[in-house]
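Attaching the record inline, Q. Sequence:
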Amino acid sequence: MKIKLKLFANLRQYLPGAPIGEAVEIDVPEQYTLGELAAQLKLPPDEVKICFVNGIICELEKILIEGDEVGIFPPIGGG
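Structure, as predicted:
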């Protein structure tokens, strides 16, 4: 099934060639979770802070469905 994925900040390096600020369409298996997606992309677990599915914050146990739009953010610091 196809989903749209957008990685933010330093996580973009795990989608080489993805245009900055653009979502990419990828294929994932049925009943795939956000956590399985993060593992497939080899995202370091301590670098996955906030995940959105269709604009709603979700836990890594969230099961994805066809057409979902996923955004993954790393921890953000600032002062």
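The domain at 2-73 is CATH 3.10.20.30 (Ubiquitin-like (UB roll)). The radius of gyration is 12 Å.

More tomorrow.
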